[in-house]
Specification:
It is built from 11 helices and 13 strands. The strands form 4 sheets. It has a 7-stranded mixed β-sheet with strand order 5-7-6-8-11-9-10, sandwiched between helices. A two-stranded antiparallel ribbon has the order 1-4. A two-stranded parallel sheet has the order 2-3. The protein has helices spanning about 15-20, 50, 105-120, 140-145, 180-190, 210-215, 255-270, 285-290, 300-310, 320-325, 330-340; strands spanning about 10-15, 20, 45, 60-65, 75-80, 85-90, 130-135, 155-160, 170, 195-200, 220-225, 275-280, 345-350. The structure holds zinc ion. Zinc ion binds next to loops.
Amino acid sequence: MVSYSLPFEGAVSREELLRHLHVHSRLREAIPFVFKYYERDWGLCTTQELRDQLKDEAYRVVIRTSFEPGALKVGEIVIPGENDETFVLAAHLCHPAMVNDDLTGVVVGLDAARILLESLQRAPRRFTYRLLILPETIGSVAYLSHHESLIPKMRGGLFLEMLGNDSPHALQGSFQPESQADRCLRTALRGLDPNGYTSAYRTIIDNDERQFNAPGVRVPMLSLSRVEAPKSSGRPPYREYHSSLDTPAILTQARLEASRDLLLGLIEAWERNLYVVNNFKGEVFCSGYGIWIDYRANPEGHRRLFEIMERCDGERSVADIASELELPFQAVWEVVRLLRDKELVRLSRHPEPTAPLRG
Ligand SMILES: [Zn+2]
């Protein structure tokens, strides 16, 4: 049946029945997922194979549904941090009898939340993390409108979906591609999954991140999925998308675990994304600090060390430096950590430019 179909009982001609009988546009053997929340109509869904067998001239249709006020349910897990600056994780739970879209986002988010909660004793976190499990779009709209006071504290977010099928990870940027969230997650993906790809806002797939990125809200929320190719390719997000073939058979546990680990790796980078404030002035005497890299033996490492050091100026975060140099976040972090251990730099939550003010 069409999700949110109006009730209908009566005799109809074959022609009228077919007008209300939906089939999948690509998969003959699959029943499509069709929803009509606002375009009010009755309807049924079936396979192309069954539709082709309907030769009688008249049919009796019985759809017993009712519409009455109910509650919109939102699942929420809060993982408290050192302060209330928040990173939002979200997944939607509203597609009946489908798994990849988007139970996979829900379970990956829940498992990551469980691990983060368990590790809280050992590893307190800078940021508060808030996992939201919502009905798509309307759930995000309702949540945001009931929690407006939380929005100014939301520093970034990641929407999770379609994480079980056999495609590489796809990271879609937010509406603010130069935000710290975008720079950090984009460069961290490079270090965590070389097969993953990135693409701009609304070029991979549209979901709840639209409500967070929208005017008046403007939380830079990215999305993580395993969508096969960007929308411009004309291909569906994955073969079984929005059909009765979206079952556990197209998932593997290993892929769900890999996505969970990737998510935890992205969060690790986000926690480390601080501004790098130089305690030194001028160029560092590297040999004196025992961090010199011989340019004859390792020219790449030598150049990289200097390129990173000259950007440690209190104005740039680790993610800013990684973005400028097109390096993985983790590669920059390793150098910054070394400089911090030598007390050549310190890390700050906010920019602290060290160049003298010029009047
Ligand atoms: Zn969907």
